[in-house]
Design goal:
With 159 residues, the chain is mostly beta strands. The protein has one helix and ten strands. The protein has a domain of 110 residues. The chain has an eight-stranded antiparallel beta barrel.
């Protein structure tokens, strides 16, 4: 009987020790530090002007890191009504394409404008247009003509 009791005690101890789980702390996972993100701050307002014989075109805008443009544009051409409004668009390579929403003669209008960036200036583009849904757009942007006579040069922004 002593042998049976000893065997039962040994087996019980064996079963108890087998069921006993050792709880180790979970492995530590150390995340990699985040990569330094390149933060591109807007360069501030960029301002351009064309001024010939009393006619003035003024453009000011900001460009964000996604090449989105937000700004103002005004035309004060001798013999025509002044119009001024907002400029919202994008820069594609060296070309700014934007919707110009403006007021002229008491009516609000939207037309697409294009400016080619060249040597720190912007040259206004012209081409055939179509009107649809209250907006005047270029028929074919690939056929735009940029006349250097309409070159806006960089100027200090007015405060």
């Amino acid at each position: 009987m002593k042998k049976v009791s000893a065997i039962v005690i040994i087996m019980a101890g064996f079963f108890i020790s087998c069921k006993k789980e050792t709880t180790l702390p979970p492995p530590q996972i150390t995340p990699n530090p985040p990569k330094e993100a390149e933060i591109v701050e807007p360069a501030g307002d960029q301002c351009y002007m064309w001024n010939i014989k009393g006619s003035v075109i003024e453009m000011s805008f900001n460009v964000n890191s996604h090449q989105e443009v937000n700004g103002k544009l005004s035309y004060n051409i001798v013999g025509k009504d002044k119009n001024e409004g907002t400029l919202i668009g994008n820069i594609y390579g060296d070309t700014l394409i934007a919707d110009y929403t403006f007021n002229s003669e008491g009516a609000s209008s939207i037309r697409e404008v294009a400016f080619l960036q060249k040597d720190g200036t912007y040259i206004e583009g012209y081409g055939d247009v179509v009107e649809a849904n209250g907006k005047v757009s270029f028929k074919d942007r690939k056929k735009l003509k940029f006349d250097v006579k309409n070159t806006l040069t960089k100027v200090e922004c007015k405060q």
